[in-house]
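Anyone up for a design puzzle?
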């Protein structure tokens, strides 16, 4: 089959301010198995330009694929753009199958299938195996009911006396098959690197870059985190094979920077250490950047030299809050002292630390922000990233905030860089003023500036200058957006009214012995779609 993968342009600061793009790993991960199954696959990356919706539609018409597969990693805030593209594609290619996948559609399939009749199928969960089964069924005319992990409209009506759920366009019965199993062996499927021109993608100050995944998921249970709910179980790739792939990316494609997509690449000390040693043995001068937990850095104090030798240049640490009771409430499973120590250890080993903190978890008061500012300065990270608490429907945090008012109803602004929930004791202007003040103080204090000039590693000095250049633009852009672009509403809907009911109950049933998340994707449907009504439909 002729398949076109489309990466829609994302409106957020992360995509638009730096004039650099990273390859859409999610789509490439889906593309590899499809190519290996014998299909002809191409990629249209509309982030470049960015392409307008009309230009994307014209390009799709020109290429005339039999199926387009759309998805974006920045998935909640990317949804409006993805949906607009599917509408435009349908208007120019009435016969093309339109398939949509990713994290947000996985948990909002019911609403999306109802509101966007042009979308034929939503792939729920990981895309590698489901896409191959789906495209095979589409190509051979086999019933879609037999493909686990999808939602679609069936022409068939509900079984014996059960009222079917009909979509808005009344094209058929809305159907969801049982969840697909997680991809057990991450080495079984390959990423379709051949679909990109590596020279177009860069990061870290115009260095050729890719996104990769050593592991999926996370064994921890932070209440606000949607990612662990999506991937369900922590798994990792074969460390040696993964190191070989990175070395190949360097030697064959000229890749210099590797950005880890992992939620928690260091969850297993043994596996991570094996990877570091294998990569060191490959002798490739790669720059590795990623995110991990402060606890793991402290745990690995004795092997941090291996991190550095393998090329780790920066780790983002999700500090989230500097308040002990908030950390416990959001189940961060971390302590202030650990966060502080991790930053010190990284510095000692010549690795930059980026501390991410989140506004909106505590009762926002001037006193709380003042305390946060002093604490972050005392942590002394090299870089900080300020985010706003953004409730995903598939998290316990969403459930606990279900009655809170939404002040931002434009989903494209749900990108962690905009306040979306009302704070009972603080107006939005004061919240952004505190957030911007904290960013400015932490980045502009003499000690930070001194490091930019005097850090012993010239490569890290250059990387820090790059971050300051972007940061300066983002900082002023966010003020500009706040003052002149964003439309906040005062008496907005309650969270649950806006996004639908929480979908977290089953996901929270965990086996604490190994912290293996049960099937969070089964929120709605466990039985085949023929018996939809037997199941408890959590949403809508
Ligand atoms: C690397 C990264 C970035 C990079 C690069 C993005 C890129 N080009 O890939 C940068 C720094 C630019 C970035 C920016 C942003 N990011 Co970001 N980013 C990530 C990160 C760490 C990895 C993304 C990734 O490659 N994942 C691995 C791939 C394999 O997973 P996947 O994309 O979900 O794809 C799988 C399935 O979802 C499915 N699938 C996906 N698409 C499709 C499509 C079809 C048709 C099918 C069938 C299946 C399918 O199959 C794939 C394989 O199983 C994730 C966290 C994470 N671990 O995912 C955050 C993450 C995606 N980012 C996030 C956000 C919020 C943003 C920003 C909005 C931040 C900002 N304010 O600027 C922007 C958005 C712009 C953008 N370009 O994405 C959030 C999204 C939250 C949400 N659910 O909405 C995440 C999940 C972080 C988090 N912890 O919450 N990001
Ligand atoms: S440690 Fe990070 S990835 Fe893991 S559950 Fe917490 S926020 Fe999510």
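Challenge accepted. My sequence:
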């Amino acid at each position: 089959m002729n398949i076109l993968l489309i990466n829609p342009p994302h409106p957020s600061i992360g995509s638009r301010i730096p004039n650099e793009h990273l390859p859409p790993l999610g789509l490439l991960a889906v593309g590899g198995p499809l190519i290996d199954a014998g299909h002809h696959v191409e990629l249209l990356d509309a982030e470049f330009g960015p392409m307008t919706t009309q230009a994307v539609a014209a390009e799709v018409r020109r290429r005339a694929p039999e199926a387009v597969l759309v998805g974006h990693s920045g998935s909640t805030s990317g949804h409006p753009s993805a949906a607009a593209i599917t509408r435009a594609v349908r208007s120019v290619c009435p016969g093309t199958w339109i398939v949509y996948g990713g994290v947000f559609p996985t948990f909002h399939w019911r609403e999306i299938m109802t509101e966007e009749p042009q979308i034929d199928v939503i792939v729920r969960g990981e895309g590698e195996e489901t896409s191959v089964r789906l495209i095979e069924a589409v190509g051979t005319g086999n019933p879609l009911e037999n493909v686990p992990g999808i939602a679609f409209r069936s022409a068939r009506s509900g079984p014996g006396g059960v009222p079917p759920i009909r979509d808005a366009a009344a094209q058929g019965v809305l159907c969801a098959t049982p969840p697909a199993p997680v991809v057990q062996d991450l080495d079984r499927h390959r990423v379709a690197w051949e679909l990109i021109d590596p020279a177009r993608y860069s990061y870290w100050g115009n260095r050729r870059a890719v996104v990769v995944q050593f592991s999926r998921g996370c064994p921890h249970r932070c209440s606000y985190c949607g990612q662990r709910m999506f991937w369900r179980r922590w798994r990792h790739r074969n460390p040696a094979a993964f190191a070989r792939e990175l070395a190949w990316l360097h030697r064959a494609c000229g890749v210099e920077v590797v950005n880890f997509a992992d939620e928690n690449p260091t969850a297993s000390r043994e596996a991570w250490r094996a990877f570091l040693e294998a990569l060191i043995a490959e002798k490739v001068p790669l720059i590795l950047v990623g995110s991990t937990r402060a606890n793991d850095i402290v745990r690995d104090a004795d092997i941090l030299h291996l991190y550095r030798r393998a090329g780790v240049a920066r780790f983002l640490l999700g500090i989230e809050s500097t308040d002990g009771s908030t950390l416990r409430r959001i189940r961060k499973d971390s302590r202030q002292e650990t966060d502080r120590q991790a930053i010190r250890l990284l510095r000692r080993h010549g690795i930059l630390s980026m501390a991410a903190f989140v506004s909106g978890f505590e009762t926002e008061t001037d006193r709380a922000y003042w305390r946060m500012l002093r604490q972050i300065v005392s942590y002394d990270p090299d870089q900080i990233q300020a985010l706003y608490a953004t409730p995903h429907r598939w998290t316990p945090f969403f459930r606990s905030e279900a009655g809170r008012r939404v002040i931002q109803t434009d989903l494209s602004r749900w990108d962690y860089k905009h306040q979306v929930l009302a704070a009972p004791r603080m107006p939005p202007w004061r919240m952004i003023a505190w957030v911007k003040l904290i960013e400015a103080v932490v980045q502009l204090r003499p000690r930070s500036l001194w490091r930019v000039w005097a850090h012993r590693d010239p490569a890290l000095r250059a990387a820090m200058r790059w971050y300051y250049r972007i940061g300066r633009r983002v900082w002023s852009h966010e003020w500009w957006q706040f003052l002149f672009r964003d439309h906040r509403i005062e008496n907005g809907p309650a969270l649950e009214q806006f996004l639908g009911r929480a979908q977290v109950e089953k996901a929270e049933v965990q086996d604490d012995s190994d912290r293996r998340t049960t099937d969070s994707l089964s929120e709605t449907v466990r039985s085949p779609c023929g018996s939809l009504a037997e199941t408890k439909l959590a949403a809508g």
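A detail worth pointing out: The first strand starts at residue 2 and ends at 7.
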